[in-house]
Structures are given as structure tokens and as C-alpha cells.
Amino acid sequence: xxxxxxxxxxxxxxxVLRYRIDRLEPGQTISVGxxxxxxxxxxxxxxxKILQYFxxxxxxxxxxxxxxxxxxxxxxxxxxxxxxxNRTEKKIKNGDEVKFxxxxxxxxxIEKDITIEDEIPYGLMINKIRLKTKDREMxxxxxxxxxxxxxxxxxxxxxxxxxxxxxxxxxxxxxEIENYVRIKGINISGESNKISLFIELDQEQNSENNENDxxxxxxxxxxxxxxxxxxxxxxxxxxxxxxNENGKQDSGEMGISDIPVFLINExxxxxxxxxxxxxxIYTFDKIKKGNYIIIFQxxxxxxxxxxxxxxxxxxELNSDVMKGKLxxxxxxxxxxxxxxxxxxxxxxxxINAGFVEGKKQDFKIDKTIQQVIVENKKETKVYSYxxxxxxxxxxxxxxxxNSNVMITYNIAIQNQGEVARIC
Length: 423
Known about the structure:
Layout: H1 3-6, E1 7-13, E2 16-21, E3 47-52, E4 55-58, E5 61-64, E6 68-73, E7 79-85, E8 91-93, E9 97-106, E10 112-119, E11 124-132, E12 137-140, E13 145-153, E14 158-167, E15 176-179, E16 182-185, E17 188-191, E18 195-200, H2 221-228, E19 233-241, E20 260-265, E21 271-275, E22 281-287, E23 290-296, E24 303-305, E25 322-328, E26 331-337, E27 341-343, E28 353-357, E29 363-375, E30 380-388, E31 404-415
Parallel strand pairs: 8-18, 19-28
Antiparallel strand pairs: 1-2, 3-6, 4-5, 7-9, 9-14, 10-13, 10-16, 11-12, 11-14, 15-18, 16-17, 19-22, 20-21, 20-23, 23-26, 23-27, 24-28, 25-26, 29-30, 29-31
């Protein structure tokens, strides 16, 4: 009698598989093979244990086999990213404050290491970037291309990111701007919703003299010429090294020479350029009424911009510039720039730029392997390691194509530099 004739499949119900054995001779062995596929683990659990055994019922006697226990790991990953803004209207103009509020939520049950990216649109000048996790809150470097790596987000945790900017039409490349945040990681790729804003360009007159174009024709030419005359003004300030990083020009702090300083008329886009003198002083003379910005083109490998208009520091001694980017032709350069300056009836003095000498940034990163899980239709294998940098696993050649390999790393980051960074 063949094995197929010896036992018969009956049913699978309530997680129980039933067979009937018609006859079992003394000394006879019957092998029953069962192929199982693990179902999805409940979303509120990290793993599910599976207990399997066989029992044979012979009239009034029940025989039990040994127990086999296996674990199925949770593999669901869900990172939700949302973005809002403080702007109730889509139209914005030069000088408006625009804030983006981003929330990143781990809706899965697995701790994840993610990277956060955001290319801040041209036309927005960054005031500050704040990142808040469960354990800490930090201000990030105000780079136009925001990149925060190795942010660990635990199951159920929400990370908050706030980007505070000011509209600056001098750096814009198009009238419509769009912002969104991207999230990356192992088996993770996603982005937030997009927020679009439209910049209203200032339609100022090119010259204050045009205000008299419609004067009474009875006025003679000499009278018109007198009205066109305008008192020249000046703008001046100093670029200095903020040695103690307090956002204030203290006695004895040195000036920075030979930094190119540009004065740009917001209406006409005309510009003048001077270089700071040995003591860091610069001056623009014979300036007409109007709106202007000042740009300092510094070397970002040597300096970083100090605190903008530090609270409690007087106008004469504070710094009036923020870090930004400017596209010149095909090249994008790092700059420090003021907000819009208005000249109406007097000179502008002490428009200063404070810089901190660049500090060493050096990270040591060690990555070791904690665990490797190999899953396929045949089996699930778990390999554990004690902070190993190399791992060896075995996969049946017939199962390689259909196997999933999940690796758990331990990443240790040590800041060996002089600048505090968030990791």
C-alpha cells in the first residue's frame, strides 16, 4: 500500500490541519510534509511567535509530538510626512515672513534611521531652522540645501521641523516657489505634500524724480530742474571677526579686509561694489533715495556668519546679515546679506557684518552588524552578531531569488570636531 493510500487530507479549519490515516502497520512509518506561509504580523507587534506540533488520536488515546517554535519578525515600515505653513494666502511679497512646519511620524513598529532633505527655494532667506525630537531640540545650520542625516525615529515618535524664512526677491529665480521635504532610509522613500507660493514683485519707480512728471505745465524749466535735484546719501559699516561668538562687536575684535561688498538697488537692480579696508570698514557714497540690500561675498571655508541682530545688542554693535545663496550665471555662491534697507532722509551707518572663524568639523562613524534575518519560502533564519563588521550567511541556492535579507546595523557617531551638530 502506498503512502497516498494510507492517509487522506480532510480539512484546514481554525488553524488546525486534519488528516485521516486509514491503516498503520506495526513498524510502519508515514511521513507527512506540511508547507506553511507566515501571515502578516499584527501592526502593534514587533514579532509573532508560531507554535507548531502534531497530535495523533487513536480511539481514546492521544499522542503528542515535540513542539516547534518560530518567530516571524514585523517588517512593516510607515513614515508619514506632512507640511503646513503660516501663510494663509498664496501671494507673498518682499520682506514677508514664511514659515514651514513639518511633522515626521513613525507609524510602524520598527525604529528607523532616516535622512531629511529639503532644498529651500530661491527667493526665501533662511532665518533659522529648528529640529525637535523626543529627547532634544536644536537649531541647525541655515544651509539652503537642508540635509540632516542619521535621525533615529522610534515607533510612534513624531519629529518636528520648523523652517523660518523671509521673502527676498533679489535671490529669486522664478515667481512661483515650491517647497517639500523628502525622507530617505533603508527601505524608506517618501516626501511631504508640496506648498506653492507666488511672489508679488515690487513695481517701484526707477527714480523719485518721476513723481513730478505731471506737474503743471505753467512751471518753467528752471523750476523743474530744481525739483529733480536730490541730496546724496551714504551707507557704511564694518565686517569684523566675532572672536567670542556673542554677536557683538567687542573692543579689540579685528576687522576683515578685502571682502567684496555689493550694494544693490531693489528697483533698478543696479549695483555698486567696494572692498572692505584693512579695518573692515566699507562706505558707499552718493546714494539716492530708495530700497537697497547689501551683500558680503565671503569665503565659507574660512568663516561662518555670526548671530543676526542678537537680542540685547545695540544697532551700532550688532550684525545685520544672514547667510544665503546667490546664483551668478551657472554658479551658486555663499553670501551674507542684509534685509531691505530704506534710504529716505538720512545716511545709514553701522550696517555691519559679523563673522566667526571656521571651526573644525570631523566625525568618526563606526558601523557594525547586530543581526541578519533571511526570509524565503523555505525558512526564516536569524543570525546574531556581537558588533561584527563582517557577516556570513547561508542561503539555499534555489531560494536566493525569492529571499529577503534584513540587516540591523549599530551606527556609532563620534564628534571629534569643534562644532556641535545634530545626528
